[in-house]
Amino acid sequence: MSEAAETVRLFFALWPANALQEKLAIWARQAADRGRAMRRENIHLTLAFLGATEASLIPSLTAHALSVRFGPIRLPLDRVGYWKHNRIIWCGAGEEPQALVALVDALRTRLDAGGIHYDHKPFVSHITLVRNAHGLPAVPAWIPLVWQAHDFALVSSTRVEGRVSYAVLQRFPAAAD
Ligand code: 2AM
Question: How far apart are the CA of 85 and the centre of ligand 1, in A?
Fold first, then answer.
């Protein structure tokens, strides 16, 4: 009997430094109300969601990602919002930076060329801060931040006893400014 191939749940993301994650996590906890604030170490911005992927594909995925050329991204986090359809409170840029759109296009084009499966839903950048939210409660004032991203990451997601935990497998640096 052949054994099923080992799969890992994967996605590509911009992964903030701890200090920025911490600022966002503090606000998320204050805004959580009846929802569930994201834990500091899980806060990120997804670029492409691959889902269950054969582990043996990771080296080729990494090679594809390394060949993506992109510049540093200046991402103002100047908006917070609530989406009813998936009940999340999120933050992001009021106006999508061109450098971010270009990175997502380049990455997805590369994945397409490599025949790698991912979720083709149009990219709408956001950082999830609270799940299972019931709207924007009387939220604390949002203080706009600016995120300077100099790399993106391949991330795995595992669920242990109902808790999701993410691990950055590899980072891919931007070309120098
Ligand atoms: P979300 O925060 O808006 O739920 C890991 O699940 C990450 O991938 C999350 O940031 C999640 O976005 C994102 N994601 C994008 N498409 C997804 C999908 N089809 N299923 C699960 N997560 C998805």
Answer: 13
Per-residue model confidence as pLDDT tens digits over 31-75: 999 899 999 999 999 999 999 999 999 999 999 999 999 999 999
Rounded to an integer, what distance in angstroms lies between the CA atom of residue 75 and that of residue 77? 6
Q: Give the residue extent of every domain in the chain.
A: 7-173
Q: Which token pair is 15?
A: 């992964």
> pTM of this prediction?
0.95
Ligand 1 touching residue 49 (CB < 6 A): yes
DSSP labels, 22-71: HHHHHHHHHH-TTSEEPPGGG--EEEEEEEEEEGGGHHHHHHHHHT----
Q: What are phi and psi of 99, to 5 degrees?
A: -65, -30
Question: How far is the centre of ligand 1, averaged over its atoms, from the C-alpha of 132 (Å)?
Answer: 14
* CATH 3.90.1140.10 matches 7-173: yes
